[in-house]
Amino acid sequence: MTAIPEPMSLAEARRLEALRRLNILDTPRESELDDVAALGGALLGAPYAAVTFVDDTRAWAKAVRGVGDRRDVPRDWSISWHAICSSDGLCHTTVDELPALAEHPAVRGHDLRTLAAAAISAPDGQRVGAVEVGWSDPLADDGAVRATLRRVAAHATRLLELRAEASEYRRFIELSPDAVLVLDLDGAIELANPMLAELLRLEAPGEVLGRNFLELVAAPDRARVAKELARVLFARTPAAQLDMRLLRPDGSTVACDVSAGHLRASRRSLQLVVRDLDERIRGEEQRARLSEQLAQAQRLDLAGKLASGLAHDLKNLITVMSSYLDLAEGSVEDLVPSVGTEPIEPILDDFEQLRRAVERAGSLTTKLMQFARTEGSTDEVDLAKAVESVRTLIESALAPGVRLQIDLPDDLPPVRADAVALEQALVNLVMNSSDALPDGGTIIVRARLTDNAAASGVTAGPRTPLDEGRRFVRISVIDDGTGMDQETLARAFEPLFSTKGAARGTGLGLPTVLAFAQQVDGMVDLHSVKGEGTTISLLLPAEAGESAMPDRHRPIGGARVVLVDPNERARRVITEMLQSAGYRVLAAADGEEGLRLLREQGADVLVTELALPGLPGWRVVQRARDERPELPVLVFASAQAPDRVTDDVRTLVKPFSNDRLLRTISELLPE
Fold first, then answer.
1. Which helix (H) or strand (E) covers residue 666, if one does?
2. What does the alpha-carbon distance between residue 42 and residue 19 come to, in Å, rounded to a whole number?
3. Which helix (H) or strand (E) holds 479?
4. Number of domains in the chain
5. Fewer C-beta within 10 Å: the chain N or C terminus?
6. DSSP state of 177
7. Which residues pair with 54 in a beta bridge?
């Protein structure tokens, strides 16, 4: 016989943990284990037999044959403890050999002289107890007795495995995301998980235990459901998929998809897995809406990319036309001293009409590019002009009976923003308000200067904290329309979320407005009440004042400009424009040539197009700055503003006027 281990050795700790997981001590008797004790006693002709479990201090007879009392005893008194500690899990001895066993009540009550036990194990293999038997006569250690005792103990071990599997199954059922029921042979509910209670709106799943499942089925479905469940119960079909409506306590019903399967290895007959069919239908509809919104967004993205490519070429042409028009106008004005103003006034009038047509073409091209633009160049924007442009654009597109009212003070400072993006944001907001006025009403566009950036509703942005010492222009679009409920408010800035339906909305309007506000370190404030209307405000940082307008003809001391533009016509006209203002221009068709000119001949400013063949414009800027960190840089963007150049690089989006180009370059050069 091996020595008993220390009470709290590592092996003993693992054994006690396995026993704890079984949750078998101090619990009611179990008929299966009673049968094991009776079987062991009968097979071995023993007046005493028991199934005993042993913890750190005691032995507990869970099932006993021949003795009704199941009291626990110190574990040293139990033959089961000695079997657990033996090398082979079996102990056969007499009371004379182990006097401590004589203290056991069963030994005294039956005057037992010989005892034997075979260990039983938990599912993880740890010995947690034993099947023990006792005889009144001294019996020699017999191989047949040992073999029989081992078989009985193996049967008890298997029962523990089944017991653990049942416990795990019950836990799996309780944690299942689906509603699950287990029915007995009569169709009564033996087990139900919390999700069933949630589905049927019950306080607890225990409310349905013991009830016949068919009582929960709506009356029109009962006969059909009973027939199908009977087919599964009697194994005519191994499983069935059923649609039915289940009753809730308030009398309402819920459409369900039920999977029924036969539990062959249990006294229970059927397991039912119940899924909320209404919820699944709603989920499928939601997925279909999201798929359509995604497809629509992809179509818009493709249209934007096509528009961007087309607009790139158009803007180059418009830039050339605008620049040559400026040069031609200047040449005609130079004739005034020799011929007077009267002969050239008609020509200047024609030039003015041409200029308006070019500006209109540039405006249309810019609007064409709005699909693809993610960020634009920033400049001082006059709000009055921006709002007037929006009013002219959309007033005729408003819903019938909707009136647009403008409320702007005369002394508003400009804001720093992309003018096109600001107009696009205002168009989105005004059209949203128009959609919220199906019976007509008034939309107010109001702007005020404020030192307080506090918001009154749902806010979003900016990427960095607002500067408390800075002034803001609050541009509000106000309507008295349908308003939003709290759920819609919470998702208002969520991309692809729309309440307008696939035919009228993409769910990109407010996210686009938010993106614009974030680009200029502003904020969006949304306040809405269902049935009372909506106020949505853009808070944009105000400029300190009008920036100085440098004289386009101020002396520039022959400053050298390296110009990089792949378009020959644009390169030629910009060169002429700069040379006419006194600049020395070194022109290049690609980035590598421009960098070579910069390195060999030097320059006071680098002017480059972003869309270059081979080496892209943003890489040209990086390499130029690596060699000359303080070099002033101006970039031209034909499709969209740069997102990979540094903050101190100035940007002009084509087309631009001569005056704008010359003023920007003069601002870059030191005084």
1. helix 658-668
2. 27
3. strand 472-479
4. 4
5. C
6. S
7. 59
Tens of pLDDT along 443-481?
A: 999 988 887 655 444 454 443 345 555 688 899 999 988
Domain boundary among 488, 514, 547: 547
**How many residues belong to the chain?**
671
Torsion angle of C-alpha atoms 212, 216, 218, 221, degrees rounded to 10: -50
pTM of the full structure: 0.41
**285 sits in which H/E element:** helix 277-333
Nearest to 509 by CA among 521, 496, 523, 519: 496
Write down the pLDDT at residue 369: 58
Q: Of 76, 145, 135, 149, which is closest to residue 107 (Cα–Cα)?
A: 135
Position 138 confidence tier, pLDDT thresholds 50, 70, 90: confident
- Alpha-carbon gap, residue 617 to 588, rounded angstroms: 12
Q: Are residues 20 and 132 in the same domain?
A: yes
- The residue written with tokens 């179509």 in the block is 299
Helix (H/G/I), strand (E/B), else coil: 54: strand
- Cβ–Cβ under 8 Å, residues 123 and 156: no
CATH of the domain at 436: 3.30.565.10
Question: For residue 25, what are the CA distances in angstroms to 16, 574, 666?
Answer: 12, 94, 91
Quickly list H helices, 475-616: 486-490, 509-519, 568-580, 591-601
Give 103: exposed, middle or buried? Use CB within 10 Å, 0-12, 13-18, 19+. Answer: middle
**Which residue range is the domain that position 99 belongs to?**
10-171
Do 435 and 504 touch, CB atoms closer than 8 A? yes
Tell me which amino acid residue 310 is. L
Report DSSP letters for 67-132, one per residue: -----EEEGGG-HHHHHHHSSSSEEEEETTT-GGGGGSHHHHHHT--EEEEEEEE-TTS-EEEEEE
